[in-house]
Write the structure tokens for this entry.
Amino acid sequence: MEDLSYYEILEVSQNADKTTIKKAYRAMAKKYHPDKNPGDKEAEHKFKLCNEAYQCLSDEQQKSIYDRYGKEGLQGMGGGSRRSSGGFDDLGSMFEEMFNGFGGSGGGRRRQNPADMDKYPLDMNVDMRISFSDAVFGCEKEVSFKYKKACKDCKGTGAKNGKLSTCKQCGGQGQVGIQQGFMTFTQTCPVCNGTGSSASNPCKSCKGSGYDEVKESVTVKIPAGIDTGNRLRVSGKGNIGKKGNRGDLYVTFEVEQDKHFIRDDNDVYIEIPVFFTQAITGDTITIPSLTGELKLELSVGTRDKQRFTFRGEGIADVHGHGKGNLIAIINIQYPEKINDEQAELLTKLQDSFGIESKPHEGVLESAIDKMKSWFK
């Protein structure tokens, strides 16, 4: 494909006009684009050749030189790397169109009238920290917040007397170009936020922000089972726009940790300290739960970190899908000191188990026998 002329690469005749060349490039670029041919090196190479061909043929000056002198004639122009009225800028707009609705309505996004656009989102969020118990059982809380309301003096424009002028950054286009390699991409103008207009003189009342902040509070009912990261929507309590329409308030929760209970989704874990004699004999003990007390029957020889599950004793699902479980994890405790009488009793207890009380001896004898075989 490298040996083909630019016209042959785009599959057009030498007398093709700009519209025909552009249409051909669209089809070829879409066909060989890397996003549509992941991992295909040949398609990637053809894609680059199509870009090279279109860059030249879409520019009248480069096309004229190429027609007379071929690729060699373009070398004095830096290999065709310069920007032109129909080259890279056009490529950027074409790619934006092709991969954001290629073959659709055939035009860019219609820019909204600056007078109708709000300088802030209508929906807003506040964070709320609540206790573990409030999250488990639900409650009512008062939320205090500040919402934005369009400034009356500038009608929400941020400009003195509401008079806007053409944005100097984007020239009123609402978009600015960014050069990346041989292509130019567009993005929303950071100065006017895509409106194409900006304030020459800022409004004194709102200092150019376009809004005033108003304090308000509202009581929200927090359902049982709410968890960190969950959001609650309060309809019609958000920011107010230029036309008086109001967004929603979202409350995002952070739940405090509890000293004893550890939450995992709707399940709750609690560590239960158990004395070693209770674990050996299989005692019945009383443990705390979210709603009161529960009886835990230890099996004879309960192990350290052994788990006992109480189904339906966890946290209610915030969407009403039942309850989680309570999982009690055993933490066996041993005495730090023992007296003579206790030592004697423990010795008698150990002796009563016979060989069962000395499991290490079997391991030791096996290891010694194995070591002896190494030296035979």
